[in-house]
Amino acid sequence: MRKIFVLFAAAAALTTAACNTVSGVGRDASAAGDAVTGAAEDAKN
């Protein structure tokens, strides 16, 4: 029973870390898109 609890706790920790990583990548991609959009607008003017 204790091994199952330890495995569950480890899986929960890894899942939380993975969600934070994916969220961070999404924010980085969004920031890059905003920068490209801004550069395109500046070049157009």
Can you lay out the helices and strands and say which pair or pack?
Blueprint: H1 2-44
Question: Your description of this structure?
Answer:
The protein is mostly helical and 45 residues long. It is 96% helix and 0% strand. It has one helix and no strands. The chain is rod-shaped, with a radius of gyration of 20 Å. The termini are far apart.
SSE order, one letter for each helix or strand: H
The biggest beta sheet is recorded as: none
The number of strands is 0
Broad structural category: mainly alpha
Helix content: over 70%
Cα gyration radius (Å): 20 Å
Strand content bin = under 5%
Q: How many DSSP H or I helices?
A: 1
Shape descriptor: rod-shaped
What is the gist of this entry?
This protein has 45 residues and is mainly α. The chain is 96% helix and 0% strand.
